[in-house]
């Protein structure tokens, strides 16, 4: 069932404004999605996703829509606003797709990915990483992130695959006790029916994924969206060329990473480094 225009809130984000305007212009022109698909040479599925703000209108769609509707540079201008929209807005879209995904693959270079974080690790990240946040705001952020982890406990969870850079095990967040608890929480998920964790050691080949976080979200219709985040930025892509390049980068990193069994061994060895020191015997 398609999502109605009433479900969009144009004031909430540029992406939803774009979708609302696309639907309005299409209906004014008396065009079905099938007919518009023929005109702009984009699939009906993609156009519906843009209308419902589930997909990004990556170039050259905006130029083609302006030509089709005779709207000057309206859609090109809206695309410019979407590109400037700040990272949290883009990550909101990533979270929407995460909740629907049939498969989630992620790489974390130096920080444990959110779906794997313990509450203590989260709190330390928010407290140390954003010192201006008040306790109430930290509570809200932690609750939201814990809520995301409900997908791990579904009766039919998505297929989940994480690659962790070795730095995620060595970068101390919140102190030794927090790190030991966090690493212990990884072990039951290293190799199960629905979850896989691999560690990419420092000795593995250099690749484009050295920095930041990469998330590959594959929906039940087999379409994949990419979210790539670094320091101070976050980008989301669903064009085939970019998706294929990022999937290939991820697969190369997977091939260079330790096996799940070897990864569990490294995680256990790192846990020992975070053991509390025994007081000297007197």
String of helices and strands: HHHHHHEHHEHHEEEEHH
List low-pLDDT spans.
1-6
Helix content: 40-55%
In the CATH scheme, the class of the largest domain would be Alpha Beta
Question: How would you characterize this protein structure?
Answer:
It contains twelve helices and six strands. The protein has 282 residues and is of the alpha/beta class. The protein folds into two domains: 7-84, 434 Repressor (Amino-terminal Domain), CATH 1.10.260; 94-273, Endonuclease, Chain A (2-Layer Sandwich), CATH 3.30.870. Mean pLDDT is 87; it is low at 1-6.
Present the secondary structure layout.
Layout: H1 14-28, H2 33-40, H3 44-51, H4 61-69, H5 74-84, H6 87-100, E1 103-108, H7 119-129, H8 135-148, E2 159-165, H9 166-170, H10 176-186, E3 195-200, E4 213-218, E5 224-230, E6 233-237, H11 240-256, H12 260-273
Summary of the model, kept short:
The protein has helices at residues 14-28, 33-40, 44-51, 61-69, 74-84, 87-100, 119-129, 135-148, 166-170, 176-186, 240-256, 260-273, and strands spanning 103-108, 159-165, 195-200, 213-218, 224-230, 233-237. By secondary structure, it is α/β, with parallel strands linked by helices.
